[in-house]
Amino acid sequence: MFIGGTYLQITDFLKSLLQPEVYHIFLSLIVVLVIAIAYRLLSRSIFHLGKRLELDPHIQNSFRLILRVITLIVLTTTLFTIYELPLELILGGSALVGAAVGFGSSQTINNIVSGFYVIVSRPFKVGDYVKIGDVEGQVEEISINYTKLYTPSFNLLLVPNVQIINSRVLNCTHEGLIKYTFSLSIPYTISATDFMEKCIEPAAEEFLSKHKDMNLRKPEGYFETSTNLGQTFKIRIFVPKGGARILFVLQQELAYMIMGKWNLNKK
Length: 267
Prior knowledge:
By secondary structure, the chain is α+β, with helices and mostly antiparallel strands. It is built from eight helices and nine strands.
């Protein structure tokens, strides 16, 4: 009540000193200045908060875009009030925009809501290697609508955020490393123990020695299962976080080394 009364006293005082046209222009300039300062302070707060939470720059830009829209709405409404223009113009325009959004952009809205959920829950960060449903890759960018993955086919895949919250998410990045696991299957021409000792272990040692300048962790292998068709082994390879581009090359190289040892032992 006190603030409202003070505001009315100030406006009445200005009206008594200034002509109506000058009064409206002067008050509009004050409103624009106050809103601009508030926008600047909030924009800086978003920047510092994003830096503290390690948010992707694209996400920070999305929050700034939302702030701009809100600021524009507040500014427009205030100026309409100062110049005593009918607010029905704003309400009518908002209704048309809302109808267009409701009929034509429902999927986009779902993605935006899902994007906020991904940002808040943080199941992964930029640089993490993830498996989302039946797709996998390194997270290159997280936006309000999509998450961009760098896939094993050396392509960029845009995954809608609504698909992420409806899928199982496996984050393969821990302790600063991508811990990637792949399978190898062989027929019953060699025992599981011999395959581990004569193929996987020597190949892992050779692989580590070949790439000693990269300071990689030694690959690991273990028996997974056996079927009527043969035996399956799991191989784990470790590369630094954000290194998906070398991961895809090194994974194939290690697989070739193991199968090469197996072919030698068959002979």
